[in-house]
Amino acid sequence: MPSFTLTNRAVLAAHPEVVWGRIVDRESQAAWCEGLVSLSGGKELVTRRAEDPCGCPIEGTVEAMEPGRRLAVTFRAPWRLLRSIGLDVTLEPADDGTRLAAVAIYTLRPLGAVLRPLVRLRAEIAMHRVLRGLREATETETARLRKTAGPRAGGDLALARRRSASQDALLLRTAI
């Protein structure tokens, strides 16, 4: 089956637990993930509805999850060009925040294989926009946590840990 892989790396100026919190917080994802209108859950991890013509529901399945470190999801939808997208996101602490690596494997349908350069370009643009949105969301959340923590040292980290644990539980409940 024809496919291609995109890899992107970024350093986000936020603690890994804040970044993880933004990734698994389903209520905030629509704010930083371009084209995402709403998320809901049942037995599937995610249902996405975009406003554009190919805005059909997208089912996501969690393939692997290491809270705070790694999330691997496979998305499937009745797209005309794509069969599925496998996304693997890993986080590592860095001196200046969090090092994020995203690997996406796009499996194409026959028409998508013919139009591979166009599909790849569109996928690259989408990945850059999502990472830019995630960067903005984590920086905003870090600033909010610092403001609410006040002069207490480490307050933003403690709050991020509590929020991250509750968001992991919500994500896992909807994935089962």
List keywords for this structure.
single chain, 176 residues, alpha+beta
> Approximately what portion of the residues adopt beta-strand conformation?
25-35%
Instruction: Using the coordinates shown, work out and report the CATH topology.
Output: Alpha-D-Glucose-1,6-Bisphosphate, Chain A, domain 4
Estimated radius of gyration: 17 Å
What is the string of SSEs from the N terminus onward?
A: EHHEEEEEEHHH
Number of helices: 5
Largest sheet: 7 strands, antiparallel
Q: CATH class, anyone?
A: Alpha Beta
How widely separated are the two ends? 29 Å
Using the 3D structure, state the CATH architecture.
2-Layer Sandwich
The residue-averaged pLDDT reads 78
Low-pLDDT sequence parts: 164-176
The total count of strands amounts to: 7
Tell me the quaternary state. single chain
Helix content: 40-55%
Structural class: alpha+beta
- Principal-axes geometry comes out as elongated
The domain tally reads 1
* Lateral strand order in the biggest sheet: 1-7-6-5-4-3-2
What is the name of the CATH superfamily?
START domain
Which helices and strands, and how do they pair?
Elements: E1 3-12, H1 16-24, H2 26-32, E2 39-40, E3 46-48, E4 58-66, E5 70-76, E6 82-94, E7 97-108, H3 110-114, H4 116-149, H5 155-175
Antiparallel strand pairs: 1-7, 2-3, 3-4, 4-5, 5-6, 6-7
Please, could you describe this protein's structure?
The protein is an alpha+beta fold and 176 residues long. The protein has one domain (3-175): Alpha-D-Glucose-1,6-Bisphosphate, Chain A, domain 4 (2-Layer Sandwich), CATH 3.30.530.20. The chain is built from five helices and seven strands, in the order βααββββββααα. It has a seven-stranded antiparallel β-sheet with strand order 1-7-6-5-4-3-2. Strand 2 and strand 3 form a beta hairpin. The protein is elongated, with a radius of gyration of 17 Å. The protein starts with a strand and ends with a helix.
